[in-house]
């Protein structure tokens, strides 16, 4: 029997500031709400927009480091796998899906935030976003 592949890539914006928590053993967990928006034309030629919301989880030191940089509105590319789980609340079984992030690319839009820090410019289709960034970009984050 062959193995399967569970991989997802999302590009979107954070809908709220990230939430950094820690497990009882001290492991960091960063939770994000990422909005992806698709624009299209319907049958009648009218412009339509569909926004989907995704729960994203980033574990460990990577999550701790990103919590310092990410804010509501931050533009990201998230690569990871989908995890489905269920739980019971008020006697009703509920289900949730979340993305367990493995790679994060920061795709800032060039605006300045309240601290005066400037986000990195958006990556164009022909650029290599933040690889070996010699200008100080985001290459100093401790990615494993």
N-to-C CA distance:
32 Å
Count of discrete alpha- or pi-helical segments spanning 4 or more residues: 1
CATH fold type of the domain at 8-106? OB fold (Dihydrolipoamide Acetyltransferase, E2P)
Shape: globular
Please mark out the parts with pLDDT under 50 across 5 or more consecutive residues, or reply none: 118-144
Q: What share of residues are in beta strands?
A: over 45%
Order of helices and strands: EEEEHEE
Query: What is the β-strand count?
Result: 6
Helix share bin? under 10%
CATH architecture of the domain at 8-106: Beta Barrel
CATH superfamily of the domain at 8-106: Nucleic acid-binding proteins
The profile of the biggest β sheet is:
5 strands, mixed, barrel
CATH class of the domain at 8-106: Mainly Beta
What is the compact description of this entry?
The chain has one helix at residues 60-67, and strands spanning 8-14, 19-22, 28-41, 47-59, 75-89, 92-106. With 144 residues, it is mainly beta. The protein has a 5-stranded mixed barrel.
Features:
144 residues, OB fold (Dihydrolipoamide Acetyltransferase, E2P), 6% helix
What does this structure look like?
With 144 residues, this protein is mainly beta. The chain has a domain at 8-106: OB fold (Dihydrolipoamide Acetyltransferase, E2P) (Beta Barrel). 6% of the residues lie in helices and 47% in strands. It has one helix spanning 60-67, and strands spanning 8-14, 19-22, 28-41, 47-59, 75-89, 92-106. It has a five-stranded mixed beta barrel with strand order 1-3-4-6-5. A hairpin with a 5-residue loop joins strand 2 and strand 3. The chain starts with 7 loop residues before the first strand and ends in a 38-residue tail after the last strand. Mean pLDDT is 81; it is low at 118-144.
